[in-house]
Amino acid sequence: MGKTTNLIHSVPVDELTGSISVPIYQTATYVQEAPGVNKGYDYGRSNNPTRHALEKIVAQLEEGTAAFAFATGLAAIDAVLKLLKAGDEIVAVDDLYGGAYRLFTHVYEKFGIKVTYVDTTDAENTIDYITNKTRLVWLESPTNPTLKISDIEKIAAIAHAQGAWVVVDNTFASPIAQQPLKLGADIVVHSGTKYLGGHSDLVAGLVAVRNEELAEKIKFIQNASGGILGPQDCWLLIRGIETITLRVERQCRTAQKVAEFLASHEEVAEVYYPGLPSHKNHAIAARQQNGLFGGIVSFVLRQNTEAAAVQFVTSTTYFKLAESLGGVKSLLCHPAQMTHKSIPREKRLHSGVADSLIRLSCGIEEAEDLIADLKNAFRTVSRKKVWNESTVSLEK
């Protein structure tokens, strides 16, 4: 069975009414036949039929044992971190999402969780940093926003030899391009806000796991902590997932064209996109991402200043300046002042997030229109540069 056919028909038809759309069970509690005797549901925090349907779909997408839906992507990350105790350690990719870095550093480090940041683009780098206290090896592949690629299968083998679990944030690739659990990861997290939802109309987080032991642990944490996704947003997420294959495949094709255009532009110093042969780990991405390199492209302006970046991101028409990514409308952002503002500048620069780095999220518009939009923005930045140089010359 094809992956799209399999996905579409994993969305259940309602047995009670025949509704082809999963019903929204907007209820806080459930009537019981006797104390502890119910139809599988007792309280909305513990379970909900709409949420249960979503979790089964995501587990199937990731080919995991189970999946769990949370109120936000960070709530999903937080649930995984609650597997740890004081004295445990995390080895994390150095180019980490700013929200995860903030959670690691400002919340969990004060509870005695040590985090070491490592360039995992060379799998061997992780060996020297994993100790007998390491419980999690935390990867993003591709990373946010410099799109670094890690060899998940090789790193998983290294981590498992030391008794550590491997967590992969699969938000940027999506389950359509990459299934980390099949590559040896133990836990996958998603910001469902992005490609899974796909329409920029909800916030959600997902955790998928490869075995029953982890499923029991995450389910307990989900119920005990209570950061669940409500039934309305579960329904929206199911509706978004139904079209994820079509959306992601088109976004990947468009991003490839945009990356190739940027790579040839004189105002661009560097382009980050795994689909370019010049990318350090292009071959690994081609192997583990099913030939789909993602809908995100990042690049550094030759004028490597925040001012130039601000001028660029405020000069586009189709690319809307906003946080987030993965929606049907194209977005762009300036990570240094937006998504990665919480990361100290020296650490941000060390991980490759330059002052003028711009992140593009390609939507489903025609690639030619998006490229034309970028050309206009480059012309605006170039005119501003000429004007500034002329002003300096006159002042002299």
Can you tell me about this structure?
By secondary structure, this protein is of the alpha/beta class. It folds into 2 domains: 239 residues, Aspartate Aminotransferase, domain 2 (3-Layer(aba) Sandwich), CATH 3.40.640.10; 151 residues, Aspartate Aminotransferase, domain 1. The strands form 2 sheets. The chain has a 7-stranded mixed beta sheet with strand order 1-7-6-5-4-2-3, sandwiched between helices. The protein has a 5-stranded mixed beta sheet with strand order 8-9-12-11-10, covered by helices on one side. Helix 3 packs across helix 4. The longest helix is centred in the last third of the chain and has 29 residues. It is globular.
Gist of the model:
The protein is α/β, with parallel strands linked by helices.
Would you spell out the secondary-structure blueprint of this structure?
Elements: H1 3-8, H2 49-61, E1 66-70, H3 73-81, E2 89-93, H4 98-108, E3 114-118, E4 134-140, H5 152-161, E5 165-169, H6 174-177, E6 187-191, E7 205-209, H7 212-225, H8 231-241, H9 244-263, E8 268-272, H10 282-288, E9 296-301, H11 306-313, E10 320-321, E11 331-333, H12 345-350, E12 357-361, H13 367-395
Helix pairs in contact: 2-8, 3-4, 11-13
